[in-house]
Design brief:
2 strands; 7% strand
């Protein structure tokens, strides 16, 4: 899979290329979003993807665009992956 590290979409149902996007029918709050991201990080399937995004953020954060309801939370999570 190819990832466009310049755009981080947190819109529900944004697709496989957006690991910070909740599922299409998701209706959780901020606490549920953070729990979803922790669950994904613990999953082998998502962990390597999230770490790749974290590394890209550490290198390119000024060039990354966040969009969606959970943008602030996603940026905070990325900042903690590679402090």
């Amino acid at each position: 899979m190819f990832y466009d590290f310049s755009t981080i979409s947190t819109d529900p149902g944004a697709g496989e290329g957006h690991p910070f996007s909740p599922p299409q029918d998701w209706e959780g709050d901020e606490s549920a979003y953070r729990a979803l991201m922790r669950e994904r990080y613990r999953s082998l399937e998502y962990r390597t993807v999230l770490l790749a995004w974290g590394k890209a953020y550490a290198r390119e954060n000024a060039n990354m665009h966040f969009e969606g309801a959970w943008s602030a939370q996603a940026e905070e999570i990325l900042a903690h992956l590679y402090p």
